[in-house]
Automatic annotation (TrEMBL):
CDD domains: RMtype1_S_LdeBORF1052P-TRD2-CR2. Residues 25-198, 238-419 form the Type I restriction modification DNA specificity domain. It comes from the Bacteria. GO terms for molecular function: endonuclease activity; hydrolase activity. Residues 173-207 form a coiled coil. The keyword Cell membrane does not apply. It comes from Clostridium aquiflavi. The methyltransferase is composed of M and S polypeptides. This is Restriction endonuclease subunit S. Gene3D superfamilies: DNA methylase specificity domains. Belongs to the type-I restriction system S methylase family. Pfam families: Methylase_S. Its EC number is 3.1.21.-. Keywords: Coiled coil, DNA-binding, Endonuclease, Hydrolase, Nuclease, Restriction system.
Amino acid sequence: MAKKKITLEEKMEEAIVTDVPYEVPGNWVCSKLGSLLKNMTTKKPDDRNEFFKYIDIDAIDNKNQRIAEPKVVNVKEAPSRASREVMEGDVLFSTVRPYLKNIAIVTNEYKDCIASTGFYICRSKGALINKYLYYLLCSEGSINYFTSMMKGDNSPSIRKEEFERLNVPLPPLKEQQRIVDRIESLFEKLDKAKELIEEAREGFEKRKSAILEKAFRGGVTEKWRKKRKINEMGKLTSLKEVADFKGGFAFKSNQFVDEGIQVIRMGNLYNGVLDLTRNPVYISRNIDSNLISKYSIKSGDILLTLTGTKYKRDYGYAVLIEEDKELLLNQRILSISPKRDICTSYLYYYLKSEFFRDIFFSQETGGVNQGNVSGKFVESVKINIVSLEEQKEIVRILDKLLEDESKIEQLTQLEDQIELIKKSILAKAFRGELGTNDSNEESALELLKEILSKE
């Protein structure tokens, strides 16, 4: 039986979104994303060639939202997921863990690649400028929507149907280009400011790294030992001998509630800072009391993330819990509790040193985006143990020498402010609040009618 032909009016009714929580300019229209995109097409590796270029999630630099390095794969070993055709101008969006923002535009150099079915390939029917769509998908509003639609525990993802229901504020094409131009102009200025901040922080970090390395090679207490006629430099001991280790529990997303006991996740340990305001999640106080007892953390514990974004190396930073709070430990976070024969601050400084981090990352596994280090390996790492008296002297000296570390935290806060400004710019852009709209231009409603009438 032939499929009933849908009229233009029915297509328009299906495409247009009327229940929008914010206002847009009068010559804009809000549409479902799926109505503006062409159907994805299949492409398999050409068996006449020996190799092909493959874009999977590992090929995306999610720090800068771009394609970093496609894999070169033998055609005979092609994974079954390698079957999405891409063309220049397509916008790739990974439907797996959308909050990681594995998003990129296909440039000319990657137009012959084949992408994983883990991506939704966004190809405009003509009503969307590619970069306008790219920035829209990068916006916090879009990411929050996709994240709220995720299903699954191990690799939470969003379905094609839900992706296509995203509300798209659709301006006239000329306005879309003006919005893109304004976004890129403002972002360029912010990125220059960020470069200056990173240069300053790099200087602080180099100084800090040199001081910490000197401390754990006996350099900062050399005069102190001579004065006390101490010849021993300490002895190398595994971390397991001087601290107790505890891994976190694999809490499921369907266990999270609006209030209760907060679960510390990897996102809360960002660049060595405990930030409980970053996407907080909670577990009910009515769960098994043994579970609460086993996975609670206390003041003096040092936390270490074992999994994170490999490209950014934003894990492996030590975070000291400085006050007793009701917190539970999530999986892939290691809690390290110093024993009596080691000073907490001495161990904390060691775990913050590049000396330790070089050893830590020497055992890193995983692809470009996903890095992992084994908790058992961390237990085996050696630390130079000197007397408690000398440990305290090292801590005293380091506290004094690293007073400028607070400035690094200030720089980090400035960087965070820049990211917030970028989010604000994107939010304003897709509400028509950048001051670029020309109300005399023909309504985007006519543009929508035009592309739907051609189907």
